[in-house]
Specification:
By secondary structure, this protein is α/β, with parallel strands linked by helices. The chain folds into 2 domains: about 160 residues, Rossmann fold, CATH 3.40.50.300; about 60 residues, no CATH class. Strands 1, 2, 3, 4, 5, 6, 7, 8, 9 and 10 form a 10-stranded mixed sheet that branches. A hairpin with a 2-residue loop joins strand 1 and strand 2. Helix 4 packs across helix 5 and helix 4 packs parallel to helix 6.
Length: about 240
């Protein structure tokens, strides 16, 4: 093993579930098995036997994104036990991840450019010229320059989702959490989004955890073909 390979192997996983992760969604408890994600790896978490009306992806994505504590189990990000950290340290760790909301998450009274600029202005400490150049580069990467001055409600579903993706990627996160992606979701229908994610994985080692609302054979096959892995989880303790 080379010294570089040895150093890489010593790095903790970007994401790890320990002791089975139990969380509640809609009155049902779900249990995620132990799993690890290294740098540049992609993982899809898929509920088994989800019934009509079940959508544990909403809560699970927030558990994974350090927003909603699980009822049991341990989540490690970059080697740190997330929910054992003080709130300020957890918030600082959160700046190293990007969260793509299924329902949007854009501020309705700001233009798309200003929505993308906000995380850069708050966290990246860029001056106005640097901020403008950075946001323009993100808009170009996802082919959104034509809607930069629009408000979120003026965009179609595809462009709005890509704006959420651009904002999540704007601070160069170590890993990405995507809520509710499926074969019918905007990202799966939009080649530029997939190509951006694949390029980020190849060039910058971007890791990704996708939380699906239900089993999706078409998406799971495409995800595995792109080099991702799929882990199914079920109800905790034999709940029916």
């Amino acid at each position: 093993m080379t010294s570089a390979a040895a150093a890489a192997s010593a790095e903790p996983p970007v994401f790890a579930v320990e002791e089975r992760l139990v969380f509640e969604s809609g009155g049902t408890h779900w249990s995620v098995p132990e799993v690890e994600v290294e740098a540049a790896q992609w993982l899809a978490l898929v509920p088994e036997d989800a019934r009509p009306g079940d959508d544990p992806s909403y809560e699970l994505a927030r558990v994974v994104a350090t927003i909603l504590p699980p009822e049991r189990g341990r989540l490690r990000l970059l080697g740190q036990d997330v929910y054992a950290l003080p709130p300020l340290e957890r918030q600082q760790l959160r700046t190293q991840l990007g969260f793509v909301h299924r329902a949007g998450g854009l501020l309705s009274n700001l233009s798309i450019r200003d929505n993308l600029a906000m995380p850069a202005s708050v966290h990246a400490q860029l001056d106005l010229e640097q901020e403008y150049a950075h946001v323009t580069q993100m808009l170009q990467e996802l082919e959104l320059l034509g809607v930069a001055d629009h408000l979120p409600h003026q965009l179609n579903e595809l462009d709005r989702w890509c704006c959420c993706l651009a904002r999540a990627l704007s601070l160069e996160p170590a890993w990405l959490v995507v809520e509710g992606m499926s074969a019918g979701s905007p990202a799966a229908r939009l080649p530029v989004a997939w190509s951006t994610l694949l390029r980020r994985r190849a060039d910058r080692g971007l890791s990704m955890v996708v939380c699906l609302p239900t089993t999706d054979v078409e998406f799971e096959a495409a995800f595995v073909e792109c080099g991702g892995s799929v882990v199914h989880y079920g109800r905790a303790g034999g709940e029916q």
